[in-house]
Write a structure and sequence with these properties.
This protein is α/β, with parallel strands linked by helices. Helix content is about 50%, strand content about 10%. It starts with a helix and ends with a helix. The structure holds 5-phosphoarabinonic acid.
Length: about 475
Amino acid sequence: MFGLFTKLKKITEKYVILQSLKFQEMIKVNIEGCRPFVKAEEFEQYADKALDAFDVLQSEKGAGNDFLGWKTLPVDIPESLIKDCEAIREDWKKRGVNLVVVIGIGGSYLGARCAIEALSHQFLPQENAPRVVFAGNNLSEDYLAELMDLVKKSNAGCVVISKSGTTTEPAVAFRVVKTYLEETYKDAGKRIVAITDGAKGALKTLSVQEGYRSFVVPDNVGGRFSVLTPVGILPIVLAGFDIRAMLKGAADERESLIKRGKENAAVQYAAMRNLLYSSLGKKVEILACFNPRLQYLGEWLKQLFGESEGKEGKGIFPASVIFTTDLHSMGQFIQEGERVMFETTVSVEKVNRSVTIAFEEQNLDKLNYLAGEHVEHCNKMAQLGTKLAHMDGGVPQIEIGMEQVDEYNLGAVFYFFEFACGISAYMLGINPFNQPGVEAYKNNMFALLRKPGYEKQTEEILARL
Ligand code: PA5
């Protein structure tokens, strides 16, 4: 009897340990949907290559190793920085600020937008927090004019973010917003916060001159890896979300990812996507979510992978879709078009809210077979059905699982993908942390705008037209 009790206790303990291990690995990878397309031995080879790339990333001896500050951000961010952000939130509350314009582009905006859109109510304003809108991420005059319609009807504050401090899009938007704030509010200087380089750049100079409160983008963190610096932290705090939970999620995920091994979720993901690309010619990765609040996760991921890997004539082209919405637009192509893609679905285990389908006597829509079911049950079955259909259509399937959409899990997702991206780009033999290609359009634009200093390029480009 006693023996049986001990045995049962051991089994229970083992179960508890297994459960807690399972819990530690917050972001889970399922590559089973690729198995029919790849040979097991080949995956093993790629997993070995991914481990080599993991070592390069962890030893910090690879290309771009002066941009690895993001790796320890979740444990490096001091409490004082968060407190400074909260102080601005409280100060703006006292000034009655009900609209925050976050100005920035690329890595200086996508992380914050992804987090805020994922966490916000999709229709109602966030309680006890200002509305957060984004600007400086395009050069559309209509956009800016309509933004100013809103600013003029609100009590506004502005966060301007540019690491270089010289990017045209945010500079143009900032000039428009700043001019209005200065003309309208005596305390305009207190309604502007700058996030930029610690020492150089036009924005740094201006913030010193005008006495703006400011935060530094660390030198060793590139834009697309900067969501857990003040670039993401301040907007997320101002929007009323729990940044400590987000950093904790990222720190816990870091803890599980720094363990070397083929079971490492980031190693598996990087290995499989490189195998699909190099061996099967799958040159497009469709990043899919079955939850519209994650639309901007797709945008953030496109920048992360696109800018990190798309170099030297190499790289997997990242595309993004929201399902089931886009099954009614892109579904046909994914099912039967050119067979160049694999699909990575970020799947969310639990929903935050509950809606069930009612029974109707008449049953004209023939939905009574679903009466009493949760809508998410339909979503999950759509997800499973899509996975199987796309596999039948020759599209390998990777699944990245997160528990639910909240600050903690989003922090984990950010860290997971940054880490996996580093491994993946090193596998391709690419420096993940530079972006030489983004200068080309800027040079042409400056030449066409006749920017001083570009006279020769202006002549050359006009001759081409
Ligand atoms: O990832 C990157 O480095 C880029 O997307 C930049 O973030 C983007 O170009 C904006 O640059 P900056 O912050 O210097 O204005």
